[in-house]
Design a protein that fits this description.
This protein is mainly beta. Strands 1, 3, 4, 5, 8, 9, 10, 13 and 14 form a nine-stranded antiparallel sheet that branches. Strands 2, 15, 16, 17, 18, 19, 20 and 21 form an eight-stranded antiparallel sheet that branches. A hairpin with a 3-residue loop joins strand 4 and strand 5.
Length: 248
């Protein structure tokens, strides 16, 4: 109970968002993309989604149930979401467990892009957790793919191995693995977003642990140092200048 009270004090807006969702009202969370944001997602309470057995930790959001959103989603064992079409596209990483749909099984460490107009019926027999981004595609994009992120890595340079998972005119998506003490540096041209998948980083005096999510506005510069256990990091740049609510 004390832990839940502390989380409420740290993230009171999430309880308001839940109430707004129930009423069908528009929801905004970390919607000013000119601001720096850090969310330690493991400290955020899970909130029920409209589908039983599927819970969410919201990171940023513009809109109602149809929204430009960045979210951690948890599927309970044997849970499924109803069949749906991703009008604005869906991008996700499997953080734990095995995500499943009619296209196959997607184990931990898989990166998936389902562009606008794709459809599926997602679920998980054993349960899983994913990091998912909705309505953040070029609406003309029709390239659907999956990648095992670790398989894409190049040779390490100064303790950092990097893979470019996707690149287009709107954004660049990168996966990096850092050795202990390695430094990750990146200009936030068009904005930058980072998720710590495992390990830890120190950035501008902030301790980023597994599940920490950082968003930097355009004009910033990232400089992060890996902790003693190294770090695995997903990062995206260039996209924040295109952020807007869906038009449906």
């Amino acid at each position: 109970m004390a832990a839940a009270k502390e989380r409420h004090q740290r993230h009171p807006h999430l309880h308001l968002l839940t109430d707004l969702a129930k009423k069908g009202s528009p929801m905004e969370l970390n919607a000013d993309f000119s601001k720096r944001v850090i969310v330690h997602s493991d400290d955020v309470d899970w909130q029920a989604s409209p589908m039983a057995g599927v819970d969410r930790r919201m990171l940023d959001r513009i809109g109602g149930e149809v929204a430009r959103a960045t979210t951690i989603v948890r599927y309970a064992p044997h849970s499924k979401f109803s069949a749906h079409t991703h009008t604005g596209g869906e991008e996700f990483i499997v953080l734990d467990g095995v995500f499943q749909d009619e296209h196959g099984d997607f184990p931990t460490g898989t990166y998936v892009r389902n562009p606008p107009t794709t459809s599926h019926t997602p679920g998980s027999d054993g349960g899983c957790i994913i990091f998912v981004k909705l309505w953040q595609f070029d609406m003309a994009d029709r390239t659907q793919f999956r990648k095992t992120m670790a398989d894409e890595l190049g040779a390490p340079s100064n303790g950092v191995a990097t893979a470019i998972l996707h690149k287009d005119d709107m954004e660049t998506v990168i996966y990096s693995e850092l050795g202990a003490g390695a430094v990750l540096e990146q200009d936030a041209v068009g904005g930058l977003e980072l998720l710590v998948i495992s390990g830890s980083l120190e950035e501008s005096g902030n301790a980023l642990q597994k599940g920490s999510w950082l968003r930097l506005p355009e004009g910033s510069r990232l400089r992060a140092v890996a902790g003693s256990g190294g770090a695995k990091v997903w990062m995206k740049t260039g996209h924040l200048k295109h952020a807007k609510a869906p038009v449906t």
